[in-house]
Design a protein that fits this description.
Number of helices: 7
Strand content: 5-15%
Low-confidence stretches: none
Largest sheet: 4 strands, antiparallel
Oligomer: single chain
Number of domains: 2
Helix content: 40-55%
Mean pLDDT: 82
Shape: rod-shaped
């Protein structure tokens, strides 16, 4: 039978839909929390991640509170906003988990959370049908939808289809290649344009006179990659084998785990890359990330 709320008289079906909406919100809250608790590492990164996650989690907690208070319409608006804002990000996160993290409980929680979003949208719309038209009701709905759109934009700005650690490994490898290429160029400038026989700890063992000056090399701290130095077109120079060109390559220690791209740099100072499991070549596309200090999309 119909029941009365401050927003008007609602049939019993609307109150059943309200219970569905509350459960869908609670399941979304728990599923997202468990997923990100598993993804964030222990320590400060996990705490920081959870603080940022409050922007997403708290609205799901507010939905049941508003539905069972005198703010039914506000709860419905928030449910619509969160359902619409989370659908596309949920699809991307499920795809990310299928590619990089196939733990059954991670995938299960993501799929469960994603399945709740259409329920939030459809159920909220069904209850809205029973509500009377009030002044400024559409404006309040737009405010909630704007918040949902803001969450979607934030997700889009910070989402990466590649895990953070792989991105970090790739960037550090490119920085090492860039600084090494500059060092090789400076060394060649001191030796009539000829590049060294070996470069730091890259390449064959050689006498110090035939090795690039160590002070020119900024090793940085690259992780997850193996580096090799190759001379091109050898020529004799003051008892050393020097070269008219060079190439320094970087390959992931474990392809697909520590990196998904291989790199090489030569005297042109351009860093070339390939996503295939092979050494990169000068004919491969160039990546100017290090020089521009951002990764191209």
């Amino acid at each position: 039978m119909p029941q009365e709320l401050s927003e008007g008289v609602l049939p019993a079906a609307a109150f059943w839909y309200r219970r569905v909406l509350a459960w869908a919100s609670a399941i979304s809250f728990v599923s997202i929390l468990m997923t990100f608790w598993g993804w964030f590492s222990k320590g400060e990164s996990r705490l920081l991640g959870l603080l940022l996650l409050l922007l997403v989690l708290l609205p799901y907690a507010f939905i049941p509170l508003r539905l069972y208070s005198q703010k039914l319409r506000s709860g419905l608006n928030l449910a619509l906003a969160m359902g619409c804002a989370s659908c596309i990000p949920g699809i991307y996160l499920v795809r990310f988990a299928f590619t990089w993290d196939r733990r059954w409980w991670i995938l299960g929680n993501l799929i469960l959370a994603l399945s709740m979003q259409p329920i939030l949208i459809v159920t909220a719309v069904k209850i809205h049908i029973y509500l009377p038209r009030l002044k400024h009701a559409r404006l309040k709905l737009l405010v909630n939808l704007a918040y949902g759109f803001l969450l979607f934009v934030l997700f889009w700005l910070f989402y990466s289809p590649v895990p953070f650690q792989i991105n970090k490994n790739e960037h550090s490898a490119m920085k090492y290649l860039a600084s090494s290429a500059v060092a090789a160029f400076e060394d060649a400038h001191e030796h009539e344009g000829l590049y060294p026989e070996t470069f730091g700890n890259l390449g064959p063992n050689s006498s110090p006179e035939c090795t690039s000056a160590p002070h020119l090399i900024d090793h940085g701290n690259p992780t997850g990659y193996l580096f090799e130095y190759h001379g091109i077109q050898p020529t004799a120079f003051h008892g050393c084998s020097r070269f008219k060109g060079f190439a320094i390559t970087a390959r992931p220690v474990v392809f697909g785990k520590t990196g998904i791209r291989s790199f090489c740099v030569d005297k042109s100072l351009r860093i070339h890359f390939t996503s295939e499991n092979r050494p990169a070549k000068a004919s491969d596309p160039a990546d100017s990330t290090v020089w521009m200090e951002h990764r191209p999309q």
